[in-house]
Amino acid sequence: MGDLSVHEAIFTTRSMRHLKPDPVAREDLEYIIEAATMAPSAGNTQMWAYVVVTDPEQIAKIGAAYRDVGERYIRDGVLADPDITADRQRVYSKAMHNVEHLDESPAIIVPCLHGRAPDNSDISSGFFSSTYPAVQNILLAARSRGLGTVLLTLATDYTPVRPEATAEVRDVLGLPEDVTITALIPVGYPKGPWGRPWRKPWQDCTHWDRWGG
After folding, report:
1. What single string gives the DSSP state of each residue in 49-60?
2. Alpha helices (H) in 130-203, listed in sequence order
3. Distance (Å, rounded) from C-alpha 195 to C-alpha 97?
């Protein structure tokens, strides 16, 4: 990861939603994808595939589909709930930035999997889990090159809350029927500073030897 230690990369990689319009070098994008392919996968099947989008017209079309689902699901749904908690309000208000500005991203990486998720929800979860070690590698590799990212799942096959939007993204990318979109990851130079993400204390979720220990 260049001059960045593994520790620093892990502890300073947070969601960078505000990105500069500066183009991302192809060399950096290639490095990020190579890092993704170093991840483990179930049975070492390596069923992943990646669409790297840098064409502004393509990005604009993806952004339009994402805005459609985001406005309906987040703005008119989650944020309109009168009983929404303060934490949920904070998180989803930030998420609206990507709804409104994804089309301004200099690059978007679209992780995919060969095959379609089974209808059985338990098996489906296992299917999608094969992509997320690679996704984490993408986020860390981008951080090592000074590039910000954020993991998005609306308008994908993973979160098909508005199938029409997912279908639009699939059409824009020209995906075969037997390929599944697992995430959308905008990539660019961040406008804000790096920093440790807010997380609950690790002690609150850790048990030694047995639950409650």
Report:
1. EEEEE--HHHHH
2. 132-144, 163-173
3. 19
DSSP bridge pairs for 154: 159
- Model confidence over 23-35: pLDDT tens digits? 999 999 999 999 9
Which pTM was predicted?
Answer: 0.92
Show the tokens assigned to 120: 């059985």
Domains in the chain (CATH in brackets) are 6-205 (3.40.109.10)
| H-type alpha helices, the chain | 6-12, 26-36, 56-70, 86-101, 121-129, 132-144, 163-173
CB of 67 closer than 8 Å to CB of 103:
yes
CB 89 within 8 A of CB 79: yes
Give residue-wise pLDDT tens across range 171-201. Answer: 999 999 999 999 999 999 999 999 999 999 9
